[in-house]
Design the sequence.
């Protein structure tokens, strides 16, 4: 038999424990075997402050059992933006091995208004008022996840009947007792991200013959080429760039689409750049792997080859003032974080 508490009217007195006096100190010795949870993971203490969220005063407690009321559900109360009910089994919740104990639970109610797939993580504490010492026994459980498949959590062995019914302990006095509850709802405000990795098989190979090379301006830039939907260019500095200026030929790969990437997206590229020996059929080849992103748009070799070697006719790199350069590019991986 299940009994629901009647709704309060404007003129009814709220059920509450006596006003708590300032708690100076109290030493209590309990048989810890009288307090247990379903998984024994509880924190038991005594405190002076009353529960901040809910108090349930029961008068004529013994009549619950005598009347065949095996489970009592409180009115709804709101904590953390959710509606709750406190459930007390005066004779223990037998299916959960609560025989010989008081069993107490919390149920989240009003779930029809919650979105599909809802879940609420909460840490709860149950209280029992000691009417002789004017303080509370508190038993705090670990964090629980309330959801549609299990919206009730609690302690099947909150307190043994032997301890509860012993008048010298102060929990049941003149057949009256006061239970309480506090609930800390853990808000889902964690910072998170989603990492997406896409393996790419896109590759590109292209050769350019650049004529009148010694008379080129500051730099030479190829036309754009496309690999896996991303645009690239080859950039050469015939007389060097930066610290290599006047000393080496500088060669770079430029990632054109960097402006279209959001901050946490990167493209891994395997690149080989070759300058061909047009006489002997050899080449000077350099290879690298690099991550291109919004902060790294260009990568290559400021000192690809000394200018003295490049202009040495015996080497065959410059023939009739023409240079032949080849690029092999493979996009190996695209990483996105959001």
Sequence:
């Amino acid at each position: 038999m299940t009994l629901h508490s009647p709704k309060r009217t404007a003129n009814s007195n709220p059920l509450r424990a006596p006003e708590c006096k300032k708690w100076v100190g109290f030493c209590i010795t309990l048989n810890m075997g009288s307090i247990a949870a379903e998984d024994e993971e509880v924190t038991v203490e005594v405190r002076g402050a009353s529960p901040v969220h809910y108090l349930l005063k029961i008068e004529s407690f013994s009549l619950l059992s005598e009347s065949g009321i095996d489970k009592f559900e409180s009115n709804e109360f709101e904590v953390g933006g959710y509606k709750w009910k406190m459930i007390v089994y005066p004779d223990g919740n037998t299916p959960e091995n609560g025989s010989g104990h008081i069993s107490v639970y919390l149920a989240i109610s009003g779930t029809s208004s919650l979105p599909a797939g809802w879940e609420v993580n909460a840490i709860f504490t149950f209280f029992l008022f000691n009417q002789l010492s004017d303080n509370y026994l508190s038993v705090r459980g670990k964090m629980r996840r309330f959801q549609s498949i299990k919206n009730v959590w609690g302690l099947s062995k909150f307190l043994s009947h032997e301890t509860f019914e012993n008048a010298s302990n102060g929990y049941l006095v003149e057949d009256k007792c006061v239970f309480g509850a506090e609930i800390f709802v853990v808000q889902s405000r964690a910072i998170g991200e989603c990492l997406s990795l896409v393996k790419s098989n896109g590759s590109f190979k292209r050769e350019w013959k650049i004529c009148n090379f010694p008379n080129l301006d500051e730099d030479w830039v190829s036309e754009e080429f496309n690999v896996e939907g991303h645009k690239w260019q080859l950039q050469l500095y015939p007389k060097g760039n930066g610290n290599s200026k006047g000393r080496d030929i500088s060669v770079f790969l430029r990632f054109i689409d960097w402006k279209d990437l959001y901050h946490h997206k990167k493209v891994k590229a395997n690149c080989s750049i070759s300058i061909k020996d047009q006489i002997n059929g050899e080449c000077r080849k350099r290879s690298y792997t690099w991550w291109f992103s919004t902060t790294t748009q260009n990568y290559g070799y400021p000192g690809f080859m000394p200018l003295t070697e490049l202009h040495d006719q015996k080497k065959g790199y410059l023939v009739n003032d023409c240079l032949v350069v080849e690029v092999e590019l493979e996009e190996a991986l695209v990483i996105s974080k959001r």
